[in-house]
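Q: Hi! First time asking for a complex rather than a single chain. Here are the components, and I think there are two in total. Is that enough to go on?
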Amino acid sequence: MNELRKDYLLSRWVVIATHRKRRPTDLVKKNAAFQATKLSSCPFCPGNEHMTPPAQLVFLASDDGNIVKDKDTDGLRHKNWLIRCVRNLYSAFSPPRKGESFEEGKAIGHHEVLIESPNHDEHPAVAKPQQLIQVINGYIDRLKVLSSKPYVRYVSVFRNHGLEAGASLSHAHSQVIAAPMLPRIPAEELKASRDIHERNGRCAFCEILERERKSPRLIMENQSFIAFAPWASVHPFEFWIMPKAHASTFKDIKPGPVKDLAIIMKNCLGGLKSLLNDPPYNYGFHIGPNAKTSEFYHWHLEVYPKLTIWAGFEKSTGIYINVVPPEDAAQNLKKLMKSQ
Amino acid sequence: MNELRKDYLLSRWVVIATHRKRRPTDLVKKNAAFQATKLSSCPFCPGNEHMTPPAQLVFLASDDGNIVKDKDTDGLRHKNWLIRCVRNLYSAFSPPRKGESFEEGKAIGHHEVLIESPNHDEHPAVAKPQQLIQVINGYIDRLKVLSSKPYVRYVSVFRNHGLEAGASLSHAHSQVIAAPMLPRIPAEELKASRDIHERNGRCAFCEILERERKSPRLIMENQSFIAFAPWASVHPFEFWIMPKAHASTFKDIKPGPVKDLAIIMKNCLGGLKSLLNDPPYNYGFHIGPNAKTSEFYHWHLEVYPKLTIWAGFEKSTGIYINVVPPEDAAQNLKKLMKSQ
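A: Yes, that's all I need. Here is the structure of the assembled complex.
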């Protein structure tokens, strides 16, 4: 008999297939997320900066070893960058022209691509921690800049890895979208966590953190973060990375925790890569969008490996079927953490 | 500038890419939903009935031309069936054993496969209308039987077409799942439509129907049904089939409307097949689960072609990006209806 589990906060049910569960080897993809086809014309590789719009942000290594923040101007493209962030040429959201508003059904906002490294294949699973720190600092910069726009209500920072997870280019990159309304999923999480906070006077996520830290779903922890497979994981090998210190957004995160985040991301994504032959995945940061949410919301990162297909049942009911119990997922990933 | 649209009922936003929209030819899959690999060992083909559990339901053609309803007994497997319905060997939900309950986190319920035809390739897009009528009558039977169980709260009837849409076997088949709780998506639809009914005294879907019938999103209509691309379509070429007469469930549908449903399903799915080279898709019936919902809920069928990928943004925010405006989808499908 399979198990039925409900999400910590959402009215979202998952059937956990304890009955006919799958082992990691059943889910290993034949092909790694990206085939080794490196295009000479990759628009994100050094030398091809002119193939993208001017960067809204570049980090440059200065001669004295410090990092300098700058941007491209229209004619100029910076060379020798560590990361660069450009407008997405296929933007879902665009800045408002005069008089355009969300209320009129316009998709106003921003849509940017954050190129994570000059090295085509420097994905987080294999990145130098120092490079991943720059990527996270880039996320923080874009989150700060975009969330300060008067027409922006929510900023989503996310990453698609592998063709099957929707990454059309294989050069290591993330994306940032600033939307003019509070989207459905954060809205539901915010409502549920506010309700719990009003009832118990405590942050729901701080309680989840305490519980999961002692559970068989814990993958690893360091000074600032824990990584665990959530109780009602929707995806096989799904895991969340959550800061131990309560904070609704990562805008104000300090250098120490940034480094700890880089290390736990690299370890967990590295574990996923070696366990399942570099599978496609998506990740997304969940954040509280404004100061009003600071007491009851708790930011975190959710990572969804793409190993199975959502079909007619999932799409028409919103119930998910997960063929790998999160306890098994965590134990398998944990073993790899130890050997790294 | 792209458009931002909200679902009729749900707080679900879709970016409609009017700005960089795609034509049908951009989305045609290279491979049809199923390659022409017909296994000699297909467990759903006639002669292989022993490869499945005994049928809970078979329709047999009797000598006088009538249809006889029966079931297999353990030793016997009926031959010469028109449709048969068996327990899914990889059940997500199972009937309760003594003392097992949903409250204890058991996935109690039912999970069945409805084999739609003895002919391996008789998918709805190409089925004889008479055969599709048997399939719909099979759905009605299973809905009636399963929703009468005391531990069942919701019955989902759905179909996965093509490997990429989650169909692991290519023989024409649908599935039926009976769940012990009201799932998330129907729960949200029910709440929203009940609220509207309380405010306006009218069924929200009857109003949608009136509006869409006169809109550029109409695909076709017959005496009992309309087919249209919904205002905030999540998927490119998504369409809904909705009965003109108000009813919360199709349990009590009469033979005339059953025939009209068979014809409109065949026409629309046939149009989708010829427009996009037999693309993978999922469909699911949305129904009111009990008599209490009869005034304000309105059953319908939602069809989701699988032509694009949900990535990190969709999965972490619940905002969708649709690269084909529903007006364009409807016009393209409509043209094919006329030529059929």
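A: Residues 109 and 222 of chain B are 36 Å apart (CA to CA). Let me know if you'd like any chain examined more closely.
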